[in-house]
Amino acid sequence: MAAAAPASTRPAGTLYRGREGMWSWVAHRVTGVAVFFFLLVHVLDTALVRVSPQAYNEVIGTYKNPIMGLGEAGLVAAIVFHALNGIRIVLVDFWSKGPKYQRLMLWVVVGLWVVLMAGFLPVQLVHTFRSH
Amino acid sequence: MTTIAEPRSRATRKTSRTNAEMIGWIFMRASGVLLVVLIFGHLITNLITNGGVHAIDFGFVAGKWAAPLWRVWDLLMLWLAMIHGTNGVRTIVNDYAEKTSTRLVLKSILVLAAVVVVVLGTLVIFTFDPCPPGAPADLLPSFCKA
Asked: Which residues of A touch B (CB under 8 A)?
């Protein structure tokens, strides 16, 4: 199949493959799509406040079980990466030295992400597993 | 058979007076910066400072939306996040769906879902009633008793 593939279905250009530039781009897409699908669900569950207090409390109650608590931690991890890398993209595009420091800036993003998650995760785990 | 253009002939490309893709490109960056502030504020108030997700119930939402600031905050967040996310997924569909018909179907579903969610969310914010008649009093915010 590989040898017979017509030119139009072969991937274009190989300049941008690998290393920090490509992997940050991949991670930005994956986290973006994940957050978008959560957003669709989250607006629908919040819309239940317009149905009745009981309906809203019942559905929001499902967010309070430990498995969902871990899911929320993953969601926050995705949002924080997407936010920090998004700022990096803005700097690459608008700061004159952005392209020069794009690789360094990704490691700053990763470092800030680790620090913010280290601050958030204990709080989230206490909230998730606290007896109630 | 493909014909090759005359040497030094200008590339003929369909141009339009307004560049929608450039506006989209700028929107992604401008809305992205605003969304960092809006969403971090949302996460801090809903998951960290007020006792976490366990504190969230109808009364919590009613208490927040009693303040016009949080209604404006949530409305802005809804619109910016939905347009930002829809445009992002549109880009991904354009990149990976090779058939024109597949792209059309996927983007139609995407736009339909986005319009439904934005309209529904906007109606909920504008028509929210913190003290719905007939609801059990213990589920309502304390200011409903007055």
From this structure: 9, 29, 32-33, 35-36, 39-40, 43-44, 46-47, 49-50, 52-54, 56-57, 60, 63-64, 69, 72, 76, 79, 83, 86-87, 89-90, 93-94, 120, 123-124, 126-128, 130, 132
- Tell me, what's the pLDDT at A31? 98
CB atoms within 10 A of CB B100: 8
ipTM computed for the complex: 0.85
Query: How many residue pairs from chains A and B have C-beta atoms closer than 8 A?
Result: 111
Convert the pLDDT of each residue in B64-92 to its tens digit.
999 999 999 999 999 999 999 999 999 99
Distance CA B26, CA A1 (A): 40
Indicate whether A1 pLDDT > 60.
Answer: no
Q: Do A32 and B128 touch (CB under 8 A)?
A: no
A3 within some domain? no
- Amino acid at site B56: I
Domains of chain B: 21-130 (1.20.1300.10)
- Contact (Cβ atoms closer than 8 angstroms) between residue B26 and residue B108: no
Give the residue from chain A lying closest to B137, CA to CA. Answer: A53
